[in-house]
Design brief:
By secondary structure, the protein is mostly helical. Helices cover about 40% and strands about 0% of the residues. It has helices at about 20, 25-35, 55-65, 75-85, 90-100, 105-110, 120-130. Helix 4 packs parallel to helix 7 and helix 5 (about 90-100) crosses helix 6 (about 105-110).
């Protein structure tokens, strides 16, 4: 009956130090005193949010004037869109629905805030029947014969 002794405790495995404990300054110095090899590496930008680093180029862009901004739709194009839409009796929402875009997109194009997108410009051209790109802005869109 010696096997069922309630007072003896058998430890199967003793846990080593946790990662935080083994990385502490105290653990490193004690390991060095015992003569063990200790490898220390400095992680680059450890503990800092360095995902969006401000480099020289970013700072240079910030200092520059408006010449490095995206081109916007000209006000002339915006007025042509507005006039063409009103001639057809459409609201911004109607035009947006017709070309499968948001009404905000149409508003941005009419106010000159939008960055020109050829796909959207083509849809608007076909919807209002006026040219928005090239030399003859505001001229009626010539319908090309469909290929068979």
């Amino acid at each position: 009956m010696a096997e069922s002794d309630w007072d003896t405790v058998t430890v199967l495995r003793k846990k080593g130090p946790t990662a935080a404990q083994s990385k502490s300054k105290q653990a490193i110095t004690s390991a060095q005193r015992r003569g063990e090899d200790v490898e220390t590496t400095k992680k680059w930008s450890a503990g800092q949010n360095k995902q969006h680093v401000v480099s020289k180029n970013t700072a240079k862009l910030d200092r520059e004037t408006e010449e490095l901004h995206h081109d916007r739709v000209s006000l002339e194009v915006g007025k042509v869109i507005q006039q063409g839409r009103q001639e057809k009796g459409m609201t911004q929402k109607d035009l947006a629905t017709k070309i499968n875009e948001k009404p905000q997109v149409i508003g941005d194009y009419e106010c000159g805030r939008a960055i020109p997108n050829n796909q959207v410009m083509g849809k608007i051209e076909r919807a209002i029947g006026l040219k928005l790109r090239g030399k003859d802005i505001g001229q009626p869109l010539e319908s090309k014969p469909k290929k068979k």
